[in-house]
Fold this sequence. Notes:
- By secondary structure, the protein is mainly alpha-helical.
- Helix content is 69%, strand content 4%.
- It has helices at residues 2-12, 18-32, 36-56, 59-93, 95-105, 107-132, 135-142, 144-164, 182-186, 191-219, 225-259, 261-268, 300-306, 327-361, 368-394, 407-410, 416-458, 480-486, and strands at 170-171, 177-178, 279-281, 284-285, 291-292, 295-297, 399-401, 405-406.
Amino acid sequence: MLSTAVQAVHLANTPPQLLPARELMAFTLASHILLVPFGVALPFITLLMHHRALRRDDAVALLLARRWSAVMAVQFAIGIVTGTVLSFEFGLLWPGMMGRWGDVFGLGFGVEAWAFFLEAVLIAIYLYGWRRLKPWTHFWLGVPLPLAALLGSFGIIAANAWMNTPQGFRLDARGDPVDVDVRQAVFTPMLGPEYWHFVVAMFMTAGYLVAGVYAVGWLRGRRDHYHRLGFTVPFTVAAILTPVQFVLGDSAARAVFHKQPVKFAAMELVWTTDTHVPEYVFGRLNSDGTISGGLRIPQLDSILAGFKPSTRVTGLTSVPAADRPTAVQATIAHWAFDIMVTVGCLLILLALWYGWCRLRHRDLPRSRWFFRCAAVAGVACLVTVECGWITTEVGRQPWIVYQHMRVSEAVTTTRAGSLWAMLGIVMVVYAAVFGAFLAVVLKMRTRWRIADESAADDGSAAPRAEPPPETDTPYGPRSEPEAAAGGAAPGGGSGRAPGGAP
């Protein structure tokens, strides 16, 4: 009861603008992160299909790669809007953190900004290359695209990892950071576990989302080479990475156990420090330390944390009530973590199902239930991505810089009413932006479907999009000497894919 009273007093002293600032940041981050898997992983999947097209002289693979590159470009344009809003919000909503700690961990944001700019240039070159460059030249100029995306992710995760395990500085007499060591500030203890867990999650999500589109087509009776290939390549990437992600996730959770024990206690609803700690699957933490509901598995939490029942797990009560998540925050972090783990386990079963059929029968699974599951796997991955960030951010409360600055100390002095109004404006703008994104993608899908139906009526060997009037190859107009120097493009000796490309 005493701890509850202390937390109540602390919450009463928080500034009124804290809640709207949190809600605004949470909304923009949750919205932006829906696009991140496409920005990080879709370039790699597109280039993988592009490489297959050139190596196997496969016009259908080339068509898929070109269509995916169009979606990639539209997504990147939307990401510019949502990412820019987030960048402004760091300074507008949390000036206390940026003003005091920006010199220590700001390099990560700088790296991300340069990588974002580089990715924009590379995307422009890649799109331009479909009509103007020789096939292999075009492909190799696209290879740096995934690397730029990974570099941008590195910058953001480096900044977030520093917020979770801050280092690389010394505090002077006034409590300000001095003697900054940039290398230590970037390569923090949580960087490796966070970064690889995040990157693999992005590749899994993009793979399952792209494959899900063609799984829906498969369920509707479209069993041609176009849908088979569009499903197989991205789904194989995601299926291979699924068990890898399970290992990386376990490693990341164990890193939290060692480096952020109070956050781990919130994730696992551990109230008091003890050994032989049980694992609760879901459940709700009460303010008095009791747990309502959920499935209790004796000793499992200690075993998972240290591989033996005698492992001592730090509890929430190991620190003062004002220095740990509230019961509600701990429950939110716990549910987010359990949802993430549950979906991960189900995806492993789906990946094993796929792998068994591919290895045993050299074919796709024939069950419609497999394709139903594959169709929703991408959406499930998006849920786990959101849950991962909720676990990371809510579990760290009340700290914005772990054990150095509270969220309430970093928040802006702008009036709460203004922040609520800003949240409303941002929600309207984001609804319009995402609506436009959806409309553009649906318009492209409709155009491609009409072109495919036209190709089928013409008896062509592969689906096609409406050929641009100036093109006579998948890579644009080319004189005879240029065609001879560049080699035949996929789809025939003349360099013509069946019906052209979108």
